[in-house]
Amino acid sequence: MAYAVIMAGGQGERFWPLTHKKLPKYRICLDGKISLLQKTYKRLRKLYSVKEIFVVTTKDHVRMIRDELKLAPAQIIIEPLRRNTGPAILLSTALIAKRFGDNAVVTFYPADHVIQNEKLFQDTMRQAQRIAEKKEMLVMIGITPSFPATGYGY
Fold this sequence. Notes:
This protein is of the alpha/beta class and 154 residues long. The chain has helices at residues 36-44, 62-69, 85-100, 118-135; strands at 2-7, 53-58, 76-79, 105-110.
């Protein structure tokens, strides 16, 4: 079985003063209609059922995420401390494995990405999931950087 985890723990400091602790980047509505978080969730609903989608976040953001996405409390994974991407992935993977077994395929998605070609995104994610299930391996998808940018993890 496959599960999706939306990573929504960042403060959005690079967008200050537009974003801040109470308005993280993933709550921005670039199109004036729905937030980046809602767009991410909506995109994932085309690949996963409601019960297969989780959000990992900090305790400060739980309420706004629950209000915005209408998730069950068990679908929100709360980081005990804000420690960036690696620990959030480790915590989420461990909790999902504990709930659903070691054979669960867990995929991670930033809450604030803009995806322009959703069909290509869906096809790519389905293919990655098949590879991960069949070969029992990690699959990483990204964009080849064209220049160094420490603000994006370099």
